[in-house]
Amino acid sequence: MGLPTRITGLLAACTAALLAAGGLAATAPSAAAADADLARNGNFEAGLDGWSCTGGSGAVVSTPVHGGTSALKATPAGSDNAKCTQAVKVKPGSTYTLSAWVQGSYVYLGADGTGTTDVSTWTQSASGWQQLTTTFKTGASTTSVNVYTHGWYGTPAYYVDDLTLVGPGGDPVVLPAVPGGLKAGTPTASSVPLSWTASTGATGYNVYRGGTKVLSTTGTSATVTGLTASTAYSFQVTATNSAGESAKSAAVPVTTKAGGGGGGTTDLPAHALVGYLHSSFANGSGYTRMADVPDSWDVIDLAFGEPTSVTSGDIRFSLCPVAECPNVESAAEFKAAIKAKQAAGKKVLISIGGQNGQVQLATTAARDTFVSSVSKIIDEYGLDGLDIDFEGHSLSLNTGDTDFRSPTTPVVVNLISAVKTLKAKYGDKFVLTMAPETFFVQLGYQYYGSGPWGGQDPRAGAYLPVIHALRDDLTLLHVQDYNSGSIMGLDNQYHSMGGADFHIAMTDMLLTGFPVAGDQTKIFPGLRPDQVSIGLPASTQAGNGHTSPAEVTKALNCLTKKTDCGSYTTHGTWSGLRGLMTWSINWDRFNNWAFSKNFDAYFGS
């Protein structure tokens, strides 16, 4: 498995535009004596009160400061420029002076929603405190403007202090009214769609489940996910603006549907060990017969079903040729061994793709062929389900496909449709697993597709719409925490493979959820812990990023017990984490079963 190409920064491409923007700076006239500073907490002595920073990028620090004891520190990450905003009430047809002291590279100060010409000013490099100032006039009907600061993509943190907006005061901001009309749509086994009417004066809404806030949105609808089947819940919603939060709406009771087998409620053990079995090929690890797979393995993925061509959708699977694997069993022996494993409670799946099996379902014809050919393999060998191991260029997003919740790219839409068809055909006991690389999942925290300006790798985050659309059918997601570049975690720090820290940070993202490409209006909801396993190589020969058994144990301790966490702070404790996946059973055998023995020792198998 090759390493994905790292996405390049946007800074160089935008330098010319930035330089042109520099002319927006203006010298401010003196404010009238009756004017007042309207900015709330512009000295940041009250933390981030009154301010909203994208992607959790803002924090208050005690050094460096320009005045007082606090200043704002905001850190750009990926496609997020660390924009911190405050809505301020103003009077129509009035002149205002916006000023702030800043420090850092490419720091911006501006105002939008003025009703006339929105303004900004910036500095390319402020090694010490530098004052930025600009002025604007409000439109004839403007009663509120947004003042903001931001940095630039790929640059270090910037600092802001003593921000002021001087001019005639507007009417005070009042709390928005309580939202009305809250209602629930048709629930699934793990999600409930909600909608409500807009509240006058609101700039956002919070959704509560059982009195606990579970998500925020700027729209008047949201879907709460990660719920338990056949369970009663109660939901409320509030409206927010710069003045604060309204009271909660009347509660709406909802009971989720009964769970089916595909959504993670199959009869797997509470903690399961998943492994790939090299059935159609041999490599340095040697061939392992199905009957010789130890009982430690709860899910066995047959590697691999591969297409006749990249775009055909026609998937084929056959046992390793005798010339390549002298000890290969006969087809009859292989099928009998599968039945014996299933009788012992094990699941055997066909894994589609792998490093060499590129699959692009670009047409509906390819989609339909995929369904029929995969069904044929499942039926012939009596398998329990499907593992999607699309790698390389199998999935990428077309330009303009920017929302993982409603994808438009044919290879993504057709894959989702094909899997739903297979699930419907085989019913609740159908086991569905996925093994994407970090590039296609967690990298989506920073980058999604080709990005708002183009130029990014269109494969970035491309698995997210597939996972999201199939989350109610998904038994297990086991992202490959190997053959990976460094990935940014929810702490906005980069994490590198090979130790407990990487698995802790990457798994925490899957269980907590995250804003896609830093967009707080596009939150990828966390999965249930029983739907998540950690993917690791079984030995140093199996892939880059091998993790020693001791480090694997540390990762499990942190995620399931919140001990041995090191410097990373998880967002929860998940004793129900399903388990581990490895590439591969063959490589674990080559390594004297070190991986599976450690799993058995940890979970008491």
Could you describe the 3D structure shown?
There is one protein chain. With 605 residues, the chain is α+β, with helices and mostly antiparallel strands. The chain has ten helices and 30 strands. The protein has helices at residues 15-21, 261-265, 331-343, 364-381, 410-426, 464-469, 500-512, 549-561, 585-590, 594-603, and strands spanning 36-37, 52-53, 58-61, 71-74, 84-89, 95-112, 119-137, 144-150, 158-167, 183-184, 192-195, 204-209, 212-217, 221-224, 232-241, 244-245, 252-255, 272-278, 299-307, 315-316, 347-354, 385-390, 431-434, 476-477, 487-488, 494-495, 513-515, 523-525, 533-537, 579-583. Helix 4 (364-381) runs parallel beside helix 5 (410-426) and helix 7 (500-512) runs parallel beside helix 8 (549-561).
Structural features:
about 600 residues, 30 strands, nine-stranded mixed β-sheet, single chain, alpha+beta
Describe the secondary-structure layout.
Blueprint: H1 15-21, E1 36-37, E2 52-53, E3 58-61, E4 71-74, E5 84-89, E6 95-112, E7 119-137, E8 144-150, E9 158-167, E10 183-184, E11 192-195, E12 204-209, E13 212-217, E14 221-224, E15 232-241, E16 244-245, E17 252-255, H2 261-265, E18 272-278, E19 299-307, E20 315-316, H3 331-343, E21 347-354, H4 364-381, E22 385-390, H5 410-426, E23 431-434, H6 464-469, E24 476-477, E25 487-488, E26 494-495, H7 500-512, E27 513-515, E28 523-525, E29 533-537, H8 549-561, E30 579-583, H9 585-590, H10 594-603
Parallel strand pairs: 18-19, 18-30, 19-21, 21-22, 22-23, 23-24, 29-30
Antiparallel strand pairs: 1-9, 2-5, 3-4, 4-9, 5-8, 6-7, 6-8, 6-9, 10-11, 11-14, 12-13, 12-15, 15-16, 15-17, 19-20, 25-26, 27-28
